[in-house]
Amino acid sequence: MAWIWRYEDADGGEVAPDGAPPPQPFPTQSDAESWLGETWRELLDAGVVAVTLLEDGREVYGPMGLAAE
What we know:
Distance between the termini: 33 Å
Structural class: alpha+beta
Largest sheet: 3 strands, antiparallel
Shape: globular
């Protein structure tokens, strides 16, 4: 199984902005969530508005906004 974050813009479209770390697979959901906890500010600064967690291509949850409310 592979867990990966899909990066999204304000309209929910998938994006791959310059300056964002490339999406990478994680062996567990916990690893993916820990990585996001350490990297969300960098993603937001690069223009990623939200993320969705995928497990082998299946949406697990999201979109989850990165901006503070």
